[in-house]
Automatic annotation (TrEMBL):
MF-aspect GO terms: DNA binding
Domain HTH cro/C1-type residues, every copy: 9-38
Signal sequence region: none
Domain of life: Bacteria
This protein's name: HTH cro/C1-type domain-containing protein
CDD domains linked: HTH_XRE
Source species: Aureimonas flava
Length: 154
């Protein structure tokens, strides 16, 4: 893909239902940096690694970037499949409780697995040396994920 346009990034973020702060957090950049990228006329202005991080976060959120084809660049969403654990983590509101703390930490953890079940996630946390409180928060987050996934599939 060619370098995305600023308006293409803004359209992709809106289409994915992400706020600027949520996308900036997922891409590990500042909100002002994202705002500058989105405000760009033509190719997004910014450090190449930051632009790539934003594109990767949007692709992870289900966005497909469409290259210039004579009609201009664009974006669309992948067909929705079942909600995955990592999608839930990226979309969940960060609350002021242990689950919110876990969600914030999980967003920053680039090795967090897209676990298929709680035992897989629990084994990952234990392997990372997580304390029991973090494991408990992980289990509560997993329960919230399952409830959300099941509600969306109905």
């Amino acid at each position: 893909m060619d370098k995305p346009h600023g308006r293409q990034l803004a359209a992709a973020r809106t289409l994915a239902g992400l706020s600027q702060s949520a996308l900036a957090e997922a891409a590990r950049i500042s909100v002002p940096t994202l705002k500058r990228m989105e405000a760009s006329d033509g190719p997004a202005v910014g450090m190449p690694n930051n632009v790539s991080a934003v594109v990767a976060a949007l692709q992870e959120a289900g966005v497909i970037f469409i290259d210039e084809n004579g009609q201009g660049p664009g974006v669309r969403l992948r067909k929705a499949g079942p909600l995955t654990f990592l999608q839930f983590i990226r979309q969940a509101e960060k609350t002021n409780d242990p689950v919110g703390d876990f969600i914030g930490d999980a967003r920053m953890d680039r090795t967090m697995p897209d676990a298929a079940d709680w035992p897989e996630l629990e084994a990952y946390l234990e392997g990372r040396g997580a304390i029991q409180a973090a494991i408990d928060a992980g289990e509560a987050t997993w329960d919230r994920f399952i409830a959300t996934r099941d509600a969306k599939s109905k």
